[in-house]
Amino acid sequence: KISKVVARRVWDSRGNPTVETDVYLENGAMGRAIAPAGASRGTREAVDLRDGGDRLGGMDVQGAVANVNEKLAPAMIGRDVLDQKGIDAQLIEIDGTKLKSAIGGNAMIATSLATLHAAAAYNEKPLWAHVASAYGRKPTMPLPEIQIFGGGAHAGRRVDVQDFMVMVPGAETFDEAMEITSNVYRAAGKIMAKRGHMAGVADEGGWWPVFSSNEEALETLTQAIEDAGEVPGERVIISLDIAASEFGNKDGYKLALEDRAIDTDGMIEILGKWIEKYPIASIEDPLAEDDVAGNQAFTKAFGDKVQIIGDDYLVTNAELVRQAAKDKACNAVLVKVNQAGTVSEAVETFEAANEVGYRSIVSARSGETEDVSITHLSIGLGAGQLKVGSFTRSERMAKWNECIRLQEEKEIGAFVGGEPLKNTWWK
Ligand code: PGA
Ligand code: ZN
């Protein structure tokens, strides 16, 4: 039984305040989790409660922390920690709003995740093993999706596209995927330095994108894959997060770098050309979150060639995943626990994705911390893919390093590698 719940203010990778919750049990066990924070958020995701005003640029979370300590804690004390679903339902009821704006998505997810950690501690299991047994899943080592250049809202909108990433489905092991990614990251850095384009890193640690077009970034990334001794499209593929809601909607898109406004068809045409020309195997949010027709048309045109991930479009919401399947928009879902606001809702989204045949990618946010819960979730659920940001900065590397440690666990199945991806779009 839960005996004590305590929240406090800690700080994230952007130096912004965030919520950490501890859940203590009568037997002395405890669980702890920290809320991450997004910068390019979907309009339908759970919203963080920030204090506003002048203090800390309005970003403080005293209200959210107080909500945990004063409103959530009293309702949780005495409850069975293994009843994650019941506890999450109660948190949702106490909040009572659609987007968790009363208690705050940050307060909710830190508390919900800390409960999951406490349950794992009660069962004397590592989190991944608790998740696998609680949700009846076969744990696997995920395929990492790693950012090489950061753009969009994470890099002062220097380029329109938000993430230029690589995946190494051709690697035999997780370790090998890390090594190849490291080579690509370093090769990309060398190219930037040689061209006098070295300007530090973006929010998630990918190289700051000093490019004069989105396409130049794609060319450079392809070159970096070659310089790393790989044949682009063989073992290593490119993955993009367009995050199109950041620069457009169903009525039109304004690509700063292309210096022209385009409509949905124009966007699809540009992306289609990139897919033709570069070894792109995955695209996230190709069109804006309100552009249902655009997402449908894009999926119709390229759904058999590339993985099409809904992030802002699906906001880790089971209902939206089911609707997208009916609409034939996207073929994969990004699972961000704080978009949902509770662990149970995030897992429900993952289960809905399985039902409709969508792949799932467990994902970090651009604002992260040392919390490695998502590594355990992706492994424990057997989600198959994990997106964390780049290959630098410890809030990112902590997640990859946790995967490396867990490779040694016999009960964790093989590295996903190309397996579930093969025969569809990779090769
Ligand atoms: P965010 O972006 O965490 O800043 O919202 C990440 C993403 O779009 O995948
Ligand atoms: Zn995204």
Q: What's the mean pLDDT score?
A: 95
> Care to count the β-strands?
14
Helix content: 25-40%
Order of helices and strands: EEEHHHHEEHHEEEEHEHEHEHHEHEH
Strand share of the residues?
A: 15-25%
Q: How is the largest sheet built, in terms of strand order?
A: 4-5-6-10-11-12-13-14
The distinct ligands, each listed once, are:
2-phosphoglycolic acid, zinc ion
End-to-end separation? 51 Å
Note poorly predicted spans: 422-427
Q: What is the general shape?
A: globular
Task: Please tell me about this protein's structure.
- It is found in: Cytoplasm; Secreted; Cell surface.
- Its main location: cytoplasm.
- This is Enolase.
- Belongs to the enolase family.
- Its cofactor is Mg(2+).
- The chain has about 425 residues and is an alpha/beta fold.
- The protein contains 13 helices and 14 strands.
- The protein has helices at about 60-75, 85-95, 105-120, 125-135, 175-195, 215-225, 265-275, 290-300, 320-325, 335-340, 345-355, 375-380, 395-405, and strands at about 1-10, 15-25, 30-35, 145-150, 165, 235-240, 250, 250-255, 260, 280-285, 305-310, 330-335, 360-365, 385-390.
- An 8-stranded mixed barrel has the order 4-5-6-10-11-12-13-14, surrounded by 6 helices.
- The longest helix is centred in the middle third of the chain and has 21 residues, at about 175-195.
- It is globular and about 60 Å long.
- Mean pLDDT is about 95; it is low at about 420-425.
- It binds 2-phosphoglycolic acid (PGA) and zinc ion (ZN).
